[in-house]
Amino acid sequence: MDEDTQLALSRLVALAMDDGAASKAAADFLLAWWDVEAWGGFGPNQAWLLDDQAAADLARVFAFVARAQIYPDAVMDRAELEALARRWRPGAAKAV
Questions:
Q1: Beta-carbon contacts of residue 35 (< 8 Å; ≥ 6 apart)
Q2: CA angle at 38 for the pair 88 and 17, rounded to the nearest 5°
Q3: Could you report the per-residue pLDDT of 65-90, keeping only the tens digit for each?
Q4: What stretches of the chain show up as alpha helix (H) in DSSP?
Q5: How many CB atoms lie within 10 A of CB 32?
């Protein structure tokens, strides 16, 4: 992952840890990348909730995901993903 994509991912993670509709959209994207069946999907219209920077970050990370064909725990700390799941999917069946 190049430095610009890593920065974009870091900004998405920080946004996802915050509150609000944009934060939920960022979290939904990251959790869907991790395991869509366990954590649910990300609807493209959720990008409407993002400001220009967050939308560009999401697009950059999405392009990386399409090329690299890896799961986020290969480029993120698994504890971050688990924290997102606990925060945004507290009643989910899959244990983290």
A1: 71, 94
A2: 25
A3: 999 999 999 999 999 999 999 999 88
A4: 3-16, 21-39, 52-68, 78-88
A5: 18
The predicted-structure confidence for 12-53, as pLDDT tens digits, reads as follows 999 999 999 999 999 999 999 998 888 989 999 999 999 999
68: tokens are 């690299």
Spatial distance between the Cα atoms of 41 and 4, rounded to a whole number of angstroms: 25
Q: Rounded distance, CA 40 to CA 47, Å? A: 16
- Give the rounded distance of the alpha carbon of 18 from its chain centre: 12
Cα four-point dihedral sign 7, 9, 12, 16: negative
Q: Rounded to an integer, what distance in angstroms lies between the CA atom of residue 40 and that of residue 64?
A: 20
pTM, two decimals, is 0.90
